Amino acid sequence: MFAKRLENLHPYVPGEQPKDRDYIKLNANENPFPPHESVAAAIKTAVTEKIEKLGLYPDPDSTELRKAIADMLNETGGVLNTAKVSGNKCSPSEENKIPFSVTPDMIFCGNGSDEVLSFVFYTFFDSDRPLVLPEFTYSFYPVYCGYYNIPMNPIKLRKDWTLDTEKMLSEANKTDSCTIFANPNAPTGIEIKREDVAAMIRRAPKDRIFIVDEAYADFGKESCIPLLKEFDNLVIVRTFSKSLSFAGMRLGYVVSSPDLIKSIFTVKNSFNHFPVDFLAQTAGTASCKAAAYYAKNAAAIVQERDKFSAFLRKNGWFVIDSRTNFVFAKKDGHSGEEIYETVKKAGILIRHFATKGIEDFVRITIGTPEQMKKLSEVLGTL
Questions:
Q1: How far apart are CA 53 and CA 190, in angstroms?
Q2: If you count Cβ atoms within 10 Å of the first and of the last residue's Cβ in the chain, which end, N or C, has fewer?
Q3: In this structure, are residues 160 and 182 in contact, taking their beta carbons and an 8 Å threshold?
Q4: CB atoms < 10 A from the CB of 164, how many?
Q5: How many helices and strands (H and E) does the chain possess?
Q6: Please, what are the averages of pLDDT over each run of 10 residues along the chain (382 residues)?
Q7: Which one-letter DSSP state was computed for residue 280?
Q8: Could you give the 3-state DSSP secondary structure of residue 29?
């Protein structure tokens, strides 16, 4: 009764969402701050004054939303954490000024970055050569490799948990392969400098796509978007879920050259002509126009992240320097599962990966100061 391909699927396992009690959720890297009030207002208007729109198909090209995303990237330089905020406006920091104007034809939108990644995998990766990726990275990449029958070449991280870029380059050139990694990486939280990414692309196969997943870039220092001026084979994947408080609505996007964006549209239109619904487009457009609000939130999360990391280190934890909205840490004498269970009994959820090599670590999302204080009190008992 079932297709043979089903036997080889290994689904992605998201952070748990138990219903047995109310928990402080610090296990899914969600944003602790709500969307800007203009988002709620836009949705309210959409379902009252424009209710007939819900009975019609949405814009298949997300035209207005793509323009809003392009405008937001130009306004912020692609990194909310470093954007300069003045009133209700942003301007990019000197180091993150984009040396061209991001235009709507450089943007592709989808139903969350996971769907966007699915389209990217189908568009650019084949079964005739392995995809080069880090051993520990976003765990949806191996899922899509299995889904589309794409062989993988996972490269071990260095002892300091950074990407072994030399080994990745060597393997990509050896097999003329594509490359993908998250920057900052997940679950480690480590960021590769933009110039180091540029150096990688210059030495990577010129006729193969180079993917940088910037789901957490708004909590870091740099974006690779300025590199699009130099590299036609660069594809950058981003999401609204983290820095734009949009995990419950679902919206992701790609920034790349217009030619590559057209190819992704071909795949989308062969699978689902309308992946971004009317309300998501409406709310997403409003979010982009409130960049200053989200920039302040990102900076607050970064400040709390660094404060919490210092607390952990003071109490004997090993903490990897993070440029995301989470920390990846462990404490000698305690297994990751033990820490996870201890915290859960106190009504707080954090993430534990039962994966060999990182099984003693826990990944902790940065919440509000009040939430982090409660977690710190629990962790202080270990």
A1: 43
A2: N
A3: no
A4: 16
A5: 11, 14
A6: 84 78 93 97 93 94 98 98 95 95 98 97 96 96 94 97 97 97 97 97 96 98 97 98 96 98 97 95 98 98 98 97 98 96 96 94 98 96 88
A7: H
A8: coil
